[in-house]
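Example 262.
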Amino acid sequence: MDIENAKHIGMASAYEGAKILRKYFGKLTGVKKKGAIDLVTEADLESEKAIIRTIHSAFPEHSILAEESGLNQGNAEKQWIIDPLDGTTNFAHNLGIFAVSIAFSYMDEMTLAFVLNPVSGELFTAEKGKGAKLNGFPISVSKTQKVSESLLVTGFPYNHPEIIDAIMFRFSRFTKAAQGIRRLGSAALDLCYVACGRFDGFWEQNLHPWDTAAGSLIAQEAGARVTDFSENPYDISQKEILATNNKIHQEMTGLLVYKETQ
Ligand code: IPD
Ligand code: CA
Ligand code: CA
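Predicted structure in complex with D-MYO-inositol-1-phosphate:
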């Protein structure tokens, strides 16, 4: 496998997606609902097509798992995992916090990651074992030692009514314990912001593989610890994600404990 070529194509496809998102930002005409509050726009669909076209023109045999079109099964050892617009609700409200998120998994290992915010121009990248970068410069997690000195971020999944008690219990606990809590609306950017030290920790439930595939590699390569809420190693099929600067990880897993009867 020519990883350098995959890197080149992955980055090119992220810029192709970003070009489409910039074209539609502030000018959307079609917003549809996939669920009660889960939106899809022409920008999501066109961005995904442009990304897949770029990848498939270089690697026609590779598998693709993309949010809007699902799984296109090819060579399973070489799979691209794509969120063409992470932060659709922000996008639909003209709020510039969103990103294209693309990861490449090789032989069942997340190997390359690209998260690009077309508004800020920030491109976060990572390669397994070779660190994470922001616009080409190495990044690393914060050194904050305690939750009481931390700025944390979380998100609420679209099916939040089903798990609202657990979500609000945890949100309330961290609001009391931390210096501050943010809810930005793009899990990919949340993870990248942990990677570059803007946030000290991020937690969320019920995310999908395309939300976290790229961001979790970027965070890990920047020195983050990424697990589920019980400290089991994270993989993208899991329903819980906790990414921290490592130093506050155990304090956060302690605060995440929730029992149905609470
Ligand atoms: C959503 C964002 C959001 C998170 C949701 C995701 P989408 O992705 O990452 O931050 O809270 O759970 O579904 O739908 O904008 O691609
Ligand atoms: Ca997403
Ligand atoms: Ca999306």
